[in-house]
Write a structure and sequence with these properties.
Layout: H1 17-28, H2 37-41, H3 47-96, H4 99-108, H5 112-119, H6 123-141, H7 149-174, H8 178-201, H9 207-238, H10 243-276, H11 281-302, H12 304-313, H13 322-355, H14 363-388, H15 392-413, H16 418-442
Helix pairs in contact: 3-6, 3-7, 3-8, 3-9, 3-10, 3-11, 3-12, 4-5, 4-7, 4-10, 5-9, 6-7, 7-8, 7-9, 8-9, 10-15, 10-16, 11-13, 11-14, 12-13, 12-14, 13-14, 14-15, 14-16, 15-16
Length: about 450
């Protein structure tokens, strides 16, 4: 981490209009001291260190939560809960239309109030669309005889609030209030493990109560984020939004949306195919553990992109962002490779020890997935950096190629073997990483401003 660039602190007297405006908003909407939980507890004080540190806490507690779910529910019910969470998250991403990334980009560029002004009437409609898509996934799965109705309904509530949660969270990211951003992540991502542990001790952990824990803490995180965003919401009522701003916001949102869909597809197409085809809930549970145990690497190290995005978005329009982006990519690749090598060596005894002997057959697909995990880490950091430079569509192309590669190989090789599914997944991520590296090489200057509509 020592090789990463220092924080780009912005003065209100900056000569760059975008940076100056962002600094004013940062000062105006700076969270209260009690909201700076991460800054007080973090050993590493830099924003990048805070993000990675928070992600480490999240992953540790989620790993504990995954262990609780696996050991109490077993492969079958663990697979059903994983399917519900996957359908809910995918439905939310489809309904998102890119508004989360556009909110962060506009806030980083000094226009947070204008962003919220444009979203006030859109959010309820998009949430309803997400619910409809979620219901379609549940229906298409043909698992009504297995899925508890209560769990299906509770995860539907999660879908209903997820978009609002992401908007208020990404608002804090765009303002570079990383303490508030990370605190919201702790509520939403650490909280469910507390819920799992509580109901497990009471002997009440089921698919339905697991879904309830996820939804409860999402509601808490959303309420917290709405409270932090109140000053910006008030400003949004009087914010002037011209037709050019609306067109630019829609353009950036839709391009980001294509990226979100492509990333989601590339990251989950293997598991999604398993849940919607004839795979047993046990196979879904085993493959979920393989993904979860290896995906820790990509999520933890790839979280560098959370810090990279607002840094590059705040650069002057004619600045070359590639040196900054390359430093982050090099740090991500080196760290992910070392972590994957260690996991490869210990997977034989680690997965059965942690999740139980019922999950021992998840070892081989997990080892295969490690290749894709390193590639996915590089692609994620590169994608966040390019999006901050105004090229969100580049990642969409690369991730779409990866998703198509994965899906094609699954149908060619067959979905009856988890190892073959893992091979298809890693191949897709490698294709994505290669394309992203090529895009980084040719994207020199930030080409997109919030007040214009250039693509």
């Amino acid at each position: 981490m020592g090789n990463l660039p220092p924080s780009n602190r912005v003065s209100p007297h900056s000569t760059c209009p975008s940076l100056r405006c962002a600094a004013v908003y940062h000062a105006r909407y700076r969270p209260h001291p009690e909201n700076q939980l991460i800054r007080r507890i973090s050993i590493v004080r830099s924003p990048a260190g805070q993000v990675v540190g928070t992600t480490g806490v999240v992953l540790l507690t989620q790993a504990i939560g995954g262990i609780i779910l696996a050991r109490v529910l077993g492969p079958g019910d663990r697979g059903l809960l994983a399917a519900l969470v996957l359908w809910a998250a995918t439905a939310s991403d489809i309904a998102d239309l890119g508004i989360r990334h556009a909110t962060s980009f506009w806030a980083a560029s000094g226009k947070p109030a204008q962003a919220l002004r444009m979203l006030r009437s859109v959010l309820p409609v998009l949430s309803l669309v997400g619910l409809a898509i979620y219901a379609a996934f549940v229906g298409l799965s043909g698992r009504w005889d297995e899925l508890p109705v209560a769990a299906v309904v509770v995860m539907g509530i999660w879908v209903g609030v997820q978009l609002l949660h992401m908007v208020v969270q990404r608002l804090q990211q765009g303002l570079h209030n990383m303490g508030a951003f990370n605190t919201m992540r702790l509520f939403a991502e650490v909280g469910p493990t507390i819920g799992y542990a509580t109901v497990a001790v009471l002997g009440l952990l089921t698919v339905a109560t697991g879904a309830a824990a996820i939804t409860l803490f999402m509601l808490i995180a959303t309420a917290y984020g709405v409270r932090l965003a109140r000053p910006v919401w008030k400003q949004a009522k009087q914010a002037h939004v011209g037709d050019e701003d609306k067109r630019a916001f829609r353009s950036y949102s839709l391009r980001s949306w294509m990226t979100v869909l492509a990333v989601r597809s590339n990251g989950t197409i293997d598991l999604l195919i398993l849940t919607l085809l004839a795979a047993t809930s046990v196979d879904i549970g085993l493959y979920s553990v393989a993904i979860t145990s290896t995906g820790v690497i990509a999520v933890l190290i790839g979280s560098l992109g959370f810090d990279l995005f607002p840094r590059i978005a705040g650069l002057a329009p004619d600045a070359d962002g590639r040196p900054l982006l390359r430093k982050y990519i090099a740090a991500a690749f080196g760290t992910a490779t070392m972590a994957a090598a260690v996991f490869w060596l210990v997977a034989d005894w680690l997965i059965p020890l942690v999740y139980g002997d019922d999950f021992a057959t998840a070892v081989e697909p997990a080892r295969i997935l490690l290749i894709g995990v390193v590639a996915a880490t590089v692609a994620r950091v590169a994608g966040d950096g390019l999006a901050g430079m105004g090229f969100p569509g580049r990642q969409a192309i690369a991730q779409a190629v990866g998703a198509v590669s994965t899906a094609t190989l699954i149908f060619v090789l067959g979905a009856d073997s988890l190892q073959r599914v893992a091979v298809a997944s890693s191949t897709g991520f490698l294709a994505t990483a290669v394309l992203m590296s090529a895009f980084v090489a040719v994207a020199a200057h930030r080409s997109y401003e919030p007040s214009t509509d250039r693509s």
